[in-house]
Amino acid sequence: MLDSYVEIDLDKIGANARAITQKYSDYKYFIAVLKGDGYGHGMEVANEMYKNGINYFAVSSLEEAQSFRKVNKDAPLLCLHPVHLSRIEEAKRLNLTIAVNELDYLKRLLDLNIDCNFKVHLQIDTGFNRLGFKDKNEVKTAVDMINGSNFVLEGIYQHFATAGIFDPHWDEQVRNFKELTSLIDLKKIPIVHMGSSVSMLTHPKQPFTTGVRMGIAIYGYNVAPDSLSNSPKDKLRKMRNNYFIKKYNISETYFDVKIDLQPAMKMKTRILQLKKVNKGEWFGYNASYTADEDIILAILPVGYNNGIGHANHNRQVVINGKKYPVVGEMCMNMTAVKVDSSVKIDDEVTLLGDSITVGMFGRSSGMGNAEALVNIGKNNPRFYVKDGKVVKEK
């Protein structure tokens, strides 16, 4: 048995893909984002998505594209970051769709006189102020240049900065996209796509879009907000939210989105030692935890080296279906859990999964959901499970 490992359930990945493509069937193109090595799940999940309705993929680098092509030779693949011109031949060998983010890059790309009908997607900056065109005349020029070359203008896209539920930015970005593309005919571009997962879940489809990009949702996380209750605090929140909705004239949004998304990742470990600690004795670096009674500590072979973070804010683990608190500072390769006499050396310990959600896991170390998944996915061995059986190790 490995000291610690991550388990990826491929059946859940496939089920998530079906749930998304069936619920949002008015889209023609479903683009799964695999950056961060598939949000820590590994490129191996791509084929399960592909078999279950996802028909396009996106990565952020040539290195990720190489990893993807090792598991899938044929699926359409977009690199979201502009490929360095010195590596265009490499992109050609990978059958990669190229993102064009500015006019100067496009000019230099066309000057290479590449003997390849590259598919191209234009990046539009609608307010995020990262990559993309911000001038509608340049967008028109870029479209004309691509159409006059041997390249194929297959797509155009942007990325949302916020959920846009109680702020004006989502609607502002949609307006900006319409303005920035007002000099071209979007109907002549096969794939007009927007992101992200929370946008897909909480907003209706825009009539001019044909595709949708999703990240964390495809891995099993419904990031749409729940409706507020009638508790005193939630009543105040409703008043605040309604104020912002009216103030910013926010468009239609959805809460309590009904879609069966199942987290595919779990993290598990074992117990190195069960140690009796007397009242008044302390544990770990900086003597940060002192026992206020006679206790039992389970020492686990995981720590911030495993991507779970250095901080410990009310972290818990699950052993035999019961939650136990992590105590003291996280070490590089060890963690202490306060347990009871029912816990045995060979018992399995779950750090993520079961009743420990990714939100709980991330908050324990001050990480966002995606950050938490990427960190633990890349810092631990991965087991892929299908039909309840291990089918691959990595």
Keywords for this entry:
alpha/beta; pyridoxal phosphate; PLP-binding_barrel; 394 residues; Ala_racemase/Decarboxylase_C; 8-stranded parallel beta sheet
What features would you describe in this structure?
With 394 residues, this protein is of the alpha/beta class. Helix content is 29%, strand content 23%. It is built from 12 helices and 20 strands. Strand 7, helix 8 and strand 8 form a beta-alpha-beta unit. Helix 11 crosses helix 12. It starts with a strand and ends with a strand. The mean pLDDT is 95. It holds the Pfam family Ala_racemase_C. InterPro entries: Ala_racemase (IPR000821), Ala_racemase/Decarboxylase_C (IPR009006), Ala_racemase_C (IPR011079), Ala_racemase_N (IPR001608), Ala_racemase_pyridoxalP-BS (IPR020622), PLP-binding_barrel (IPR029066). Keywords: Isomerase, Pyridoxal phosphate. This is Alanine racemase.
